[in-house]
Amino acid sequence: MKLKRIITVLIGLAILTTSASAQSAEEIIQKMDELQTFDTMYNEGTMITEDRFGEKRSTYKAWSRGSQDFLIEFTNVEERGQKILRVDEELYLFYPDAEDIIPMHGAALKQSMFGDISYEDITEGRNTLDKYDVEMINSEIVDGEDCWVIEMIATSRDVPYPKQVVKVGKKDYVLREAEYYARSGRLLKIVDVIKVETFGDGRLMITEMVMEDQLRRGSSTRMRIDKLEIDPRLDDDLFSLRSLY
Amino acid sequence: MTFLPKMAFKNLARYKKRTMITAGAIAYGLMMFIVIRSLLTGIDNESETNLRLYETATGRIMAPGYWDDRETFPLEKSFYPDVVIPVLEASGAGYSPRISFGGDLIFYKDPFPEDGSIPGRFTAIDPERDSDVFKLRDSLTEGSWLVDGEQGLLLGHWLAEDIGAGIGHTVLVETQTIDGYVQVFDLEVVGIINCPNPEITRSGMYLPLSIADEYLEMDGAVTEVNVNFGTVNGADEDFAALVPEVEALGLEALDWRILGADFIAISQAKAGGTGMIIFLILIIAGVGISNTMLMAVYERVRELGMMRALGMRDRQIRALFLWESAGIGLLGGFYGVGLGALVTWPLVKWGIDYTFLLRDASFGYRIQGQMYGVWNFPNMIFAFAMGVGMAVLVAAFSTHRILRLDIPASLRFQ
Questions:
Q1: Which of A94, A177, A208, B10 satisfies CB 3.0 to 4.6 Å to A195 for a cystine?
Q2: Among candidates B398, B130, B373, B88, which has minimal Cα distance to B243?
Q3: Nearest CA of chain A to the CA of B183: how many Å?
Q4: Residues 36-75, chain B: which have Cβ within 8 Å of A?
Q5: Nearest to A107 among B172, B176, B181 (CB)
Q6: Do A184 and B215 touch (CB under 8 A)?
Q7: Residue B413 burial (C-beta neighbours within 10 Å; 0-12, 13-18, 19+)
Q8: CA nearest to B71 within chain A
């Protein structure tokens, strides 16, 4: 009888622990999303890709609104004027030479936008909990930061990666590392956060990170924010097809 | 009655050099026409056969809308082959289900010469059924055929050469599942294909249907069922008869002409090109013939004046010159057809090796290695008639011009 009670208590504790962990994993992800989401934002940055062919560098200006809409305009000589717009959950490309807007769908989203970053990598938005079931796995020290390790399993077909493992700083709720997996369980990409800076009202922002392709050896893409404005006034027209021309 | 033809023949024999030059111009034009038509017809016939044997079969059954979006490999536009198989079996057609999907082939140094990845189209085939429709298995030059359930990969010969692939080498395939999730899986190169269709040799990548079904999470659905009624006459009609039954099942059936639209477009462009060649030959031969005929006529203006003064009628003179030009045309036609046949013979027997041209570039034709000509006898008869007709036509114009001069002017003509 005593044994039965102990077992019941243990099972109850296990259930409680599991639900508490799941709950806290959701809170962590929600908090992480909130910290990285701004009403409006403007930034200028550099993307550097390295592969067996050498190094390529691109600079850009980007405007974003909420967690979904953004406009990126490349400013380096080779790609000057090329734009990528995401609005109403659709992605459009604009090439100034062709003066044509290309909507991106299906397999086209798998194409490389820059180095190891595909178009679908930038279309996920930040409403993570709508698209993933999250579960706390354990804790881990990442670059000296104590982090939660959270596994995210896709529940939506709108995301490219069926599984992600994110490592979020316990102190600041900032993403420190992320791993992206294929459906077969093979590790595809690792994102390593290099630099986090404090801006304006004390909010933290990732300003430099490296994405390494685990399938293509020696291939990595470094993204760096050189200038950042939080909550600038942006025209509504900015996130429209008209703004691409 | 035979006076004018005899006189024309004597005139031709009298001006041997002029006759031979004019007939030579006609012969050259006709020879070019015959040889080029022979080669283009040969390419066309063989391309059509190779297109059907290795790519399109007689036709293909797909889910509605798949063909329009084929560039994006829409796996969601798939269907269960069981729906259509009873209809195909009742029709007596050979059939083979396939899944086409896009992805990256990733390979690493050791055993490959270097790391790399190439995007391409993968085709998952039923190893047992595929030979009922396509001749791919006959083109296996190295290794072994695919085995159902084993993670094997067949590569086109040129593709394998380009990336340094050999039997037993392992590659990764990066693609998407039917739900759009990124998927990666291993395959081992088990065979190399070198088939007469350069599209397959250049970029063909084949794996077992069951493996694609598992990794793409297709749950038994396929993107296409290829149908074969053979390449004999009546195959197209058999397939056309099948279309309403397939459409009644809510599927789409397209014949090889639509599936091989790029080749058909090339073929039609070629038809336009042939027309242009004929036009150019006509101009070359026409300028040559009219020039020599004009010279021949003009150097004989005084002779013509004398003949007219002696009572020969314009009609007779015109007929004489037409007989002469017909003689030149006949001579040129015989030479041209003879030369054309002489050049066509080795083209039919041995062909021209132009692998070096197709190795790195695609012209839409589905032939590789040797380009063969065909004997096209109706074309030779047409060429012969064209040579004679053109010579007579040009002579008629130039004679008409000379006959507009009066007799004294003709006699004083320098």
A1: A208
A2: B88
A3: 5
A4: 69, 72-74
A5: B176
A6: yes
A7: middle
A8: A107
Shortest distance between the Cα of A39 and any Cα of chain B, in A, equals 30
Taking only the tens place, the pLDDT of each residue in A171-221 is: 989 999 999 999 999 999 999 999 998 887 778 888 999 999 999 888 888
So what's the pLDDT on residue A107?
Answer: 64
pLDDT digits (tens, 9 = 90+) for B275-314: 777 677 667 766 766 676 677 677 778 888 888 888 888 8
Number of domains in chain B: 2
pLDDT tens digits for B147-169?
A: 999 999 999 999 999 999 999 99
Residues of B in contact with A157 (CB under 8 A): 179-181
Q: Which residues of B186-203 are buried (b: 16+ CB within 10 A; e: fewer)?
A: ebebbbbbbbbbbbbbbb
d(CA A131, nearest CA chain B) in Å: 13
Chain A residues whose beta carbon lies within 8 Å of the beta carbon of residue B183: 182-184
Instruction: Assess if residue B249 is contained within a domain.
Output: no
Q: What residues in A contact B217, CB-CB < 8 Å?
A: 183
Asked if residues A212 and A189 have their Cβ atoms less than 8 Å apart, the reply is yes
Does residue B301 sit in the same domain as residue B160?
no
Contacts of A11 (CB under 8 A, 6+ apart): none
**Beta-carbon separation of B106 and A107 below 8 A:** no
Among residues B209, B228, B247, the one where a domain terminates is B228
Residue B147, domain member (yes or no): yes
Which residue numbers of A have CB closer than 8 Å to B's CBs?
Answer: 52, 105-108, 110, 154, 157-162, 180, 182-184, 186, 188, 215-218
Q: Which residue of B has its CA nearest to A162?
A: B181
CATH of domain A33-244: 2.50.20.10
Domain enclosing residue B401, as ranges: 3-51+264-412
**Residues 6+ positions from A145 with CB-CB distance below 8 Å:** A169, A170, A171, A176
Chain A residue with Cα closest to B69: A106
Same structural domain, B11 and B146: no
pTM of the model: 0.76
Domain co-membership, B27 together with B160: no
Q: Within a 10 A sphere around the Cβ of A11, how many other Cβ atoms?
A: 10
Domain ranges of chain A: 33-244
Q: Say if residue B31 is in the same domain as residue B84.
A: no
Residues B217 and B282 in one domain: no
